[in-house]
Amino acid sequence: MGWAQGRHALVTGGGSGIGAATARALAAEGARVSLIGRRREPLDAVAAEIEGRPFAADVTDRAAMEQAFAAARQVNGALDLVILNAGIGDSAPFLRTTREAWDRIIATNLTALFDGAQLALPDLLDGADKRLVIVASVAGLRGAAYAAPYVASKHGAVGLMRSLAVEYARTGLTVNAVCPAFVDTPMVDDSAARIARTTGRSEEEARASLAEMNTNGRLITAEEVAASIVHLCRPDSGAINGACLTIDGGVMA
Q1: What is the pLDDT at residue 71?
Q2: Separation of CA 84 from chain center
Q3: Which residues are CB-contacts of 102 (< 8 A; sequence separation ≥ 6)?
Q4: Residue 219 contacts residue 210 (beta carbons within 8 Å)
Q5: Burial level of 191, CB count in 10 A (0-12/13-18/19+)?
């Protein structure tokens, strides 16, 4: 039996990338896992693999999220571990960034965290060893060109995490963030495709250029990020609160 046996873990963006890797890692520790995501097919695939429960919902739709959280509670009980992971990225020069792109990225990467935290907190404030982990980015700790909405959203994610960590420090809840650099996920695949379209390089060359932006010269794996999330969720990590755990191969060194 793992340390998470009998605990209910909810993961947003659970159908692929970091979310799927985290769901697998928590299930391996014995957790009952609820997966929330916009696309039903990948959610179903991961859920079948780990005997989890999928709940399709767009994280930018508050009403849909309320329904998904309620359904997850009905099936798996009160929430113990909540990982708010769903996110999107884009890149463009600031003066060519549209208001639509700004609104879309902020809605997914920041406002959805507000909604997810509010929906989870009634359970997370009831009991001991409760955990809220936000998947942010090293972009939340520094600036980056051609990614103003993404960087702003991730700075907001870090700020929200720190505020909640202080507000609830004397409860049984800890609130932390993981801040990866470039991770080998579908989001990086999309970034490589955009670079290839605008520069004429191949997608393989574009992926290599993104990997070189990590100090260790390679893409971080989703499993490496998941391992850090699981570490923050463990009962013996209760003194870690308000932390930004970087998984970046030395980018922020």
Answers
A1: 98
A2: 5
A3: 148, 149
A4: yes
A5: buried
Among residues 88, 166, 85, 155, the alpha carbon closest in space to that of 120 is found at 85
Tell whether the torsion through CA atoms of 95, 100, 101 and 107 is positive or negative.
positive
Beta carbons within 8 Å of 225's beta carbon, 6+ residues apart: 18, 21, 22, 135, 178, 180, 183, 247
Phi, psi for 136 (deg, rounded to 5): -105, -130
CA distance 40 to 105: 21
Residues carrying an active site annotation: 150
CA distance 43 to 202: 30
Contact 4, 29 (CB under 8 A): yes
Instruction: Name, in order, each residue with C-beta under 8 angstroms of 3's C-beta and a sequence gap of 6 or more.
Output: 29, 30, 234, 235
Give the pLDDT confidence of 164-221 residue by residue, as tens digits.
999 999 999 999 999 999 898 888 788 878 887 878 888 888 788 888 888 898 999 9
Instruction: List the 8-12 sheet strands across, edge first.
Output: 53-56, 32-37, 8-12, 81-84, 130-135, 173-180, 244-247
pTM of the model: 0.94
